[in-house]
């Protein structure tokens, strides 16, 4: 955005979001979501509204400056780090996994000599997602997560879990969402960049954009600063009768199943600033910008039909016929979306401090699509 003023949450007062956006988040809370927020921007005009609460015990209200776990929105940050390293010549998107992690990705159809960095960040590698391993699913979605959320597991072990299963398809011959891809991409970035990935993220993205509320956790299990409680039903099948648990404290740092694939913490303001920079091409030269927005169709019945995936960024058709660009993410206790028009003039950040959607919507994805469409109309 050059030298133009960038509006932030510090620019007070902020008007409430448009009635059609408020109506959706308020309905979600009426139907069982603990709390939901929406921050919208149209040019320099920033609006913010919240429904529900940050803490169901105290009734504490949600506030604009709070931090929350952003789940797979982290992948857009990870892709940006990798693409900036590529722009600097520190690594190449044509580098194979074996170039940086020799011998790690091998077995059951996985071949690190054929899978490139580009395959990883575009989700076209065919590498099996470690989260679909039955033992990991038991620890991730079921009551085992209540203790498993503090598990520490090395990235190398996550890759070994993945390669214990057959590859999904030969490299470049399909598309499938796999957190393993982004764990491998971050491991390669560390080897190439010579720093822990959290430090690369800070140096390449967050400090550059002034994102003071965004970070990738280290060993800590708490969220720094003001934040909502994060609530989970620990139910992979979406059981509406499953008990609700407070899972605010969890390990999402370096030695976790989340890390560079889903472990970051951010704020509404920071997410808008990041997406705007990505949409406007502020973070990387045109060649790498083109790489980020070169998309592959997402197979039907995976997300919203008609979605496309680039490098950590996706496009999504909305119920009103428009197309939104950005990224969404889930981690236990939190769903987050940050989306905008392709030119970055209008954006919306929306988050709910739980991991389920009311029965009114077919899924959490359809709930967020309705909120996003209410702004990008």
Automatic annotation (TrEMBL):
PROSITE patterns in the record: BETA_LACTAMASE_A
Pfam families referenced in this protein's UniProt entry, alphabetically: Beta-lactamase
Keywords: Hydrolase
Chain positions covered by the region annotation Disordered: 220-245
One MF annotation (Gene Ontology) recorded for this entry: hydrolase activity
InterPro entries per record: AmpC-like (IPR050491), Beta-lactam-related (IPR001466), Beta-lactam/transpept-like (IPR012338), Beta-lactam_class-A_AS (IPR023650)
Protein name according to UniProt: Serine hydrolase domain-containing protein
Annotated source species: Streptomyces blastmyceticus
């Amino acid at each position: 955005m050059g030298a133009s003023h960038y509006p932030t949450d510090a620019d007070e007062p902020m008007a409430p979001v448009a009635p059609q956006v408020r109506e959706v988040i308020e309905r979600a809370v009426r139907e069982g979501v603990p709390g939901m927020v929406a921050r919208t921007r149209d040019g320099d005009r920033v609006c913010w509204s919240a429904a529900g609460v940050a803490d169901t015990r105290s009734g504490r209200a949600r506030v604009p400056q709070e931090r929350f776990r952003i789940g797979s929105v982290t992948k857009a940050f990870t892709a940006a780090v990798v693409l900036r390293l590529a722009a600097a010549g520190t690594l190449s998107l044509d580098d194979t996994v074996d170039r940086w992690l020799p011998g790690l990705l091998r077995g059951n159809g996985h071949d690190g000599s054929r899978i490139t960095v580009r395959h990883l960040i575009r989700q076209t590698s065919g590498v099996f997602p470690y989260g679909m391993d039955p033992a990991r699913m038991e620890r991730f979605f079921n009551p085992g997560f209540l203790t498993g959320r503090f598990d520490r597991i090395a990235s190398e072990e996550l890759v070994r879990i993945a390669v214990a299963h057959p590859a999904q398809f030969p490299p470049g011959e399909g598309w499938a969402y796999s957190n393993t891809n982004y764990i491998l991409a971050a491991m390669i970035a560390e080897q190439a960049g010579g720093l822990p990935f959290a430090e690369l993220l800070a140096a390449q993205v967050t400090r550059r954009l002034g994102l003071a509320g965004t970070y990738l956790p280290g060993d800590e299990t708490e969220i720094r600063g003001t934040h909502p409680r994060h609530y989970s039903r620990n139910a992979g099948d979406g059981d509406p009768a499953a008990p609700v648990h407070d899972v605010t404290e969890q390990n999402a740092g370096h030695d976790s199943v989340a890390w560079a694939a889903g472990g970051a913490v951010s704020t509404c303001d920071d997410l808008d600033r990041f997406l705007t920079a990505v949409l406007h091409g502020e973070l990387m030269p045109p060649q790498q910008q083109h790489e980020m927005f070169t998309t592959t169709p997402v197979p039907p019945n995976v997300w919203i039909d008609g979605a496309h995936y680039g490098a950590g960024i996706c496009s999504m058709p909305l119920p009103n016929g428009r197309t939104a660009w950005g990224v969404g993410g889930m981690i236990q206790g939190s769903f987050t979306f940050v989306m905008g028009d392709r030119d970055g003039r209008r954006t919306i950040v929306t988050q709910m401090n739980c991991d389920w959607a009311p029965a009114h919507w077919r899924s959490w994805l359809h709930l967020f699509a309705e909120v996003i469409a209410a702004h990008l109309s």
